[in-house]
Amino acid sequence: MRAVRALSAALLTLGVAAGPAAADASPSPSQDEASAPTQAGTSFRTATEIEQGQQATASGSTGDYLYWSFPADTGQRPTVRATVKLPETHASQTWQIDVYDGLRRRQACQYGAQTRTAGADTSSVELACVLRTVRAWSEPWADDPLPGTYYVRLTATGVATADLGLPVDTGIRVDSEDIGGSAAVDGSLAEPLVPGIASKPEEEREDAAVLAGLEPEDGWTSGWWSDRWVWTAVGGILAALAGVGGYALTRGTGRPSRVPPGA
């Protein structure tokens, strides 16, 4: 009981001391939010780099092409979301987002509103594109998403002439779901599809000026690890235990006492 009382008093003291500090603390923007880009590129080569989980913003004009780029690694299923705030007065407009991989191949969306039409009385439009899971390796003829840099292009199509050049505010965010070993394949790329990554020898790549500098927080995995290794190991252990248990159940208790040794 004495130990319990001492522990309670210590916890109470800590709570009283932490109370004023918590009351004085004021929320402040996170580092990611403070460093999030506030502009977009106008082509693949000038695409603005954003990290996954960042809320990037940009101002533009109706009819412009706005470009961003982000890294996506093996096992991730990226979701791209874009918001466009339209001017008060405008005609009907159709907005669209397209996603391209490091080879600038257009990637199809599994689902999501990739294209939406905003009526004359609409103040904003929201778009979304959920890509297929990024694979560690693929056949050369296939169009599967592979690890590397991905590009997002946002633009309006079918714009009335009177609306061309009207100012708009855009926001974009990329998040990924980790699919894991269910999407794992045998094989991996020698290098992720990052423009410029193979332009210099390997020993000079750390200082090389690549066209896309962002990479996943933990680096490129290139498919060397997946949770299939864990399930394979667990399956092997369970199989061994099942074999030992089966042997113990079927071997019996040895020779019966009533049977002579020479029989």
Description:
By secondary structure, this protein is an alpha+beta fold. It has three helices and eleven strands. Strands 1, 3, 5, 6, 8 and 10 form a six-stranded mixed sheet that branches. A hairpin with a 5-residue loop joins strand 5 (93-100) and strand 6. The longest helix has 23 residues, at 2-24. The radius of gyration is 29 Å and the shape is elongated. Residues 1-31 have low confidence and may be disordered.
Question: What descriptive keywords fit this protein?
Answer:
263 residues, alpha+beta, 6-stranded mixed sheet, elongated, disordered N terminus
What are the low-pLDDT stretches, counting only 5+ consecutive residues below 50?
Answer: 1-31
Mean pLDDT: 78
User: What is the number of helical segments per DSSP (H or I, 4+ residues)?
Assistant: 3
Beta-strand percent range: 25-35%
Largest sheet, in brief, is:
6 strands, mixed
Give the fraction of residues assigned to helices. 10-25%
SSE layout and pairings?
Elements: H1 2-24, H2 31-34, E1 48-49, E2 55-61, E3 66-72, E4 76-85, E5 93-100, E6 106-107, E7 109-111, E8 115-118, E9 124-131, E10 148-157, E11 167-178, H3 228-250
Parallel strand pairs: 1-3
Antiparallel strand pairs: 2-11, 3-10, 4-9, 4-11, 5-6, 5-8, 5-10, 7-9
Question: Outline of this structure?
Answer:
The chain has 263 residues and is an alpha+beta fold. Helices cover 19% and strands 28% of the residues.
